[in-house]
Every structure is written in C-alpha cells, then in structure tokens.
Amino acid sequence: LLDFWEDELGAPLMQAEINMPQITLACGLLLDQYYPGLNWREGRSRLSDWADWYAARPSFAETHAESTLKP
Asked: Are 64 and 22 in contact (CB under 8 A)?
C-alpha cells in the first residue's frame, strides 16, 4: 500500500487543496514519530518528503501531540 501512495503523489487528489485522503495518509505515515519500528521511509523518498512537508504545515504542527503515544 505504501508503494501505491508513493506512485499516487502526482495524482490530482494529492495535488488539490487539503482534503480528507491527504490528512488520513499524513496521520498514518506520521505515526513513525511515535513508533520508530514502522520503518516505512526506506526506499520511498518521495513519500517521505511529502510526509515531512505535510508535518510542517501550520495546521499539523500546531496540533502535534506533545507526548509520546503508548502502544
């Protein structure tokens, strides 16, 4: 599924104004901040760059959880 999203980054849905699919994908990808064992970034530089760019959005940065999630 990660490879699918890597390929879909250029799709109109992913280039549009902020939308639910983008938010959902970003939330899922950015769980690696709390669970480093997910290791999804290796070999997916475009998806990794997109997730980092999305995490820097003011709306994401301002609502970032202050504490580490516990499994």
From this structure: no
pTM for the model stands at 0.82
Within 8 A by CB and 6+ apart from 59, the residues are: 18
pLDDT value for 68 = 54
DSSP state of 42: T
User: 38-58 pLDDT, tens per residue?
Assistant: 999 999 999 999 999 999 999
Helices within 1-71 (DSSP H only): 2-8, 12-15, 20-29, 45-55, 58-61
**What does the alpha-carbon distance between residue 8 and residue 4 come to, in Å, rounded to a whole number?**
6
Asked if residues 25 and 4 have their Cβ atoms less than 8 Å apart, the reply is no
Q: How far is CA 37 from CA 12, 24, 34, 41, 68, in A?
A: 31, 20, 9, 11, 14
The tokens describing 38, both together, are 């997910």
